[in-house]
Specification:
Distance between the termini: 28 Å
Number of strands: 16
Order of helices and strands: HHHHHHHHHHEEEEEEEEEEEEEEEE
Helix content: 10-25%
């Protein structure tokens, strides 16, 4: 980047997001060294302070540009992504991020970053550089197709794999309180488990504002000695995504999933979803989602459980501490209508969740969430002579470590407690897991 273009972006660097003290001093000196093209010196001075100052665009931008100019494009994307996340109106960071992704061969990400830079009306010198990047993006990869994927494995312990009550007998009100022994197979079962999962996404992008995508996923879960509970999932999510404005995105998709249990066909799920995403600034993100699904069971004896599901709701995410901390609140209204007459009738419910994520270090993230899924049926259960009402409380905590080459390792713990007006459906569940994932392009 020329000294003139660096000076153009100077007002963005000196925004209120800039931190006081040593980070600001380092950032100020780095600008002078960038203008003099002393890139190695900038890296030498800023690298030791990355943990303390990351998330401040006044620090991340000169650090990312110096990495880019010394041929370290992969490392540069991390710093420049932080800069654009903290300050979406930082044109210089978007422009350098586009160049970094182009050097890595990621045309889709490069085009997306370049679009953000161009939307900020750069001056002539920066516009010339943007035009050169645009030409390079078009010539570097004329194919509009791109592919990325991942593989994942998980090892864990589930204290209640069938979400059942730990009861040996239960009283039946419709039979004058007669106590009936429960089949041991229908009581709570615990087991170790292992997941193997692979998936990906194929994108077709002719215009940075619009893309088509198809995302298949294959997942298998093995419960050790409880082979009857083993599950295989084959799913496909395909649709399109539009940027209606620079801050408003619309995604519409068709969804389908085929499930097998114990090696036999179990259920087919299909439907569609629509989502509007609005990012008003670098601190506020809103989502509005509408989803409609059908569940159809393969076993005729389970056909009374065939249902049509609809869900409407949204979430609000706020970023704090220059993006290191994010909090989210979500709320959905759910409706489940039985395809055939069901003894309990239809089911209506509400789902609420609060969660947070904190970037403790550039490569270490903590997360926690609490949610409540409440539901009630519309008819009295003819066996238990009550209307069923459930309330599922879930608590989750986890830690994620990000490694080079797209590898992440996470430890997670989940605790669930379902309260119900019918004792048969009340249960507790605890899940501990270790998850390893690798993403590739």
């Amino acid at each position: 980047m020329t000294p003139l273009r660096s000076l153009f972006w100077l007002p963005a660097l000196l925004s209120p997001l800039a931190q006081a003290g040593v980070c600001a001093d380092l950032a100020g000196k780095a600008l002078n060294d960038l203008a003099a093209k002393h890139f190695d010196l900038v890296i030498e001075q800023l690298a030791p302070a990355e943990i303390a100052c990351s998330g401040d665009p006044a620090f991340d931008y000169p650090y990312g540009e110096a990495l880019l100019r010394t041929g370290q494009a992969a490392e540069a994307t991390l710093a420049l992504e932080r800069a654009t996340h903290s300050d979406p109106r930082h044109g210089g960071a978007w422009l350098d991020l586009a160049e970094a992704y182009l050097r890595l061969g990621d045309r889709t990400q490069a085009a997306s970053a370049l679009q953000q830079a161009q939307a900020l009306a750069p001056p002539p010198s920066a516009r010339q550089h943007a035009d050169r990047l645009q030409a390079a993006i078009l010539s570097a990869a004329p194919s509009p197709l791109s592919l990325r994927g991942y593989v994942r494995t998980e090892f864990g312990r589930d204290s209640n794999i069938n979400s059942s009550a730990d009861l040996s007998t239960i009283a039946i009100p419709s039979l004058s309180g007669l106590k009936v022994a429960l089949d041991p197979a229908n009581r709570r079962q615990s087991s170790d488990y292992q997941d193997a999962e692979a998936g990906g996404e194929l994108d077709w992008t002719q215009n940075p504002r619009w893309r088509l995508f198809a995302a298949p996923t294959l997942k298998a879960r093995n419960y050790g000695g409880h082979h009857g509970y083993n599950r295989d999932h084959y799913s496909l999510n395909a649709g399109s995504q539009f940027w209606l404005t620079p801050t408003l995105q619309w995604t519409t998709a068709l969804q389908g999933e085929k499930q097998y249990q114990g090696g036999k066909p179990y259920m087919l799920q299909r439907g569609f979803s629509n989502e509007l995403l609005l990012q008003t600034d670098n601190r506020n993100l809103f989502r509005l989602t509408w989803q409609s699904l059908q569940n159809r069971y393969s076993d005729p004896s389970l056909s009374p459980n065939d249902v049509n599901l609809s869900s409407l709701g949204g979430s609000y995410t706020h970023y704090w501490l220059d993006g290191k901390l994010s909090t989210q609140a979500a709320f959905f209204i759910n409706q489940e209508s039985a395809e055939r007459r069901r003894a309990d009738g239809d089911r209506n419910g509400q789902y609420a969740q609060a969660s947070l994520r904190y970037l403790l270090l550039p490569t270490l993230e903590l997360n926690a969430a609490i949610s409540r899924d409440s539901s009630h049926y519309t008819a009295q259960n003819p066996v238990f002579l009550k209307t069923r009402r459930d309330s599922l409380l879930s608590r989750d905590v986890g830690i994620v470590s990000y490694w080079p080459h797209g590898v992440s390792v996470s430890l997670n713990y989940t605790e669930q407690r379902n309260s119900s007006t019918i004792d048969l459906y009340a249960y507790t569940r605890r899940i501990s897991s270790l998850n390893v994932q690798m993403t590739f392009r």
